[in-house]
Amino acid sequence: MDFYHQFDTLLSAEERAHVARARQFCTGAFSEGVLAAHTSGKALPEKWIAAWAATGMLGLQAKRAHGGHEASYLCKIRVAQEMARHGFAAAFCLNHHQGGVTRISQTGTPTQIERFLAPALRGELLFTIAMSEPGGGSDASAMTTTAKPVEDGWNLKGAKAWLTDGLIVGGLIVLAKVTDSSNPGEIASFYVPLDHAESVRRNEILVPGARSFRLAEIAFDDHFVPGWCLIALPGAALKASMSSVNAARVHVAAMCIATLQAALSEAVAYCGNRNAFGKALTGHQGLRWELAEVSVRLEAANALVFRAAEQIQQGTNPVSLAAQAKKFAVDTAIWGIDQCIRIVGATGASATHRLNMHLAEVRMAAYADGTNEMLLDRIGRGLSSDYPTPTTERA
Ligand SMILES: Cc1cc2nc3c(=O)[nH]c(=O)nc-3n(C[C@H](O)[C@H](O)[C@H](O)COP(=O)(O)OP(=O)(O)OC[C@H]3O[C@@H](n4cnc5c(N)ncnc54)[C@H](O)[C@@H]3O)c2cc1C
């Protein structure tokens, strides 16, 4: 049975076709391009963003009236997994942009839709969420970026950090503290077109082996944001952003699972074809058991991710389960890929090997959408209601 069977049986025929299209797109030249970029220490060429957009995938969950497909959450996960099997960073970034398009289509005002949607669907105008700051990301309420009301809009001051595709995005979804007297310190959010303005400065944040995230810090020095760009009113932005965090966590977890599944498959194939002491490496029980151990934890992580994803698809908001799924999937993927690198021998240590790219990129999943400590904190707070004693649980 296919590893992704559980997910795929819940998809419509149209959604299964999206997954098949994603699989076809990612196999071959795209996959080679992802590895070649890693090997040369560069980011994945931007032409692949345009090519992905041309397949209609950025509009996967946008409204049909806007040219989208209105696909389900499980379909979005499966499409992302198909890409994550070839490269985690590419999948993370392109699905981040798909989320931006979905947001504009589903919740944008008529003006925002008119100005942003078509170029966003074509991959020409990329948006990323800008919440984290150089001073910290976990405690969003401590952010220092400010938005001061001015005539016809807002004046933005401050800096955001660790922005996905921050080197190339044309716009940001910025959360900032409003400084007017009626809502002092309340957090609002805005679409912020960057427009190559002089009031915007970008600097790359270099991460070893994972430049395809194109991480950047972006600072604003009195940057003007038109009034029609407001997304969430002062006081409502943090809650609105956090409402989708559980879905985002499970999404990241599902991509980690797919990358580990690809790494294990690669290690199994390699060890089946390489000989030592007169037989294939997989003919040696000690090594076979090590691969088997990776498969055990992969399957356990996949079952947990599926359980969480199914609940999100059904419309519940599984706070603890989403945190558990992300923590376990990330930890399992980092551990499992590292095992695969070691198991295949010295070749796995080569900088040009795909397993090394997988490890460098999946490591970054440990920070985005909640660090392990923040996830454990979430889980810990729900323990007594999530795990009642047999005598106190509700019938
Ligand atoms: C690949 C990647 C993509 C990203 N994309 C984006 C993006 O597009 N937009 C964006 O806004 N941000 C993005 N981020 C930033 C990410 O959200 C932050 O890294 C994350 O929120 C943690 O913030 P921090 O790194 O500043 O760590 P800090 O908040 O400074 O925390 C430092 C350490 O302290 C721990 N800690 C903090 N508080 C507690 C506590 N109460 N109890 C115990 N331990 C605690 C943390 O777990 C961490 O280990 C991205 C990060 C990465 C790596």
Overall domain count: 3
General shape: globular
What's the CATH class of the largest domain, please? Mainly Alpha
Largest β-sheet summary: 8 strands, mixed
> Would you count the extended β strands for me?
10
- Catalogue the ligands: flavin-adenine dinucleotide
Give your account of this protein's structure.
By secondary structure, this protein is of the alpha+beta class. It has three domains: 5-125, Butyryl-Coa Dehydrogenase, subunit A, domain 1; 129-236, Butyryl-CoA Dehydrogenase, subunit A, domain 2, CATH 2.40.110; 244-381, Up-down Bundle (Butyryl-CoA Dehydrogenase, subunit A, domain 3). The chain is 50% helix and 15% strand. The protein is built from 13 helices and ten strands. The strands form two sheets. Strands 1, 2, 3, 4, 5, 6, 7 and 8 form an eight-stranded mixed β-sheet that branches. The protein has a two-stranded antiparallel sheet with strand order 9-10. A hairpin with a 2-residue loop joins β9 (275-276) and β10. α9 (285-313) packs antiparallel against α10 (319-343) and α10 (319-343) runs antiparallel to α11. It binds flavin-adenine dinucleotide (FAD). Residues 128-132, 136-138, 162-164, 213, 364, 367-368, 371, 373-374, 377 line the site of flavin-adenine dinucleotide.
Features:
Butyryl-CoA Dehydrogenase, subunit A, domain 2; alpha+beta; single chain; Butyryl-CoA Dehydrogenase, subunit A, domain 3; binds flavin-adenine dinucleotide; 3 domains; 395 residues; Butyryl-Coa Dehydrogenase, subunit A, domain 1
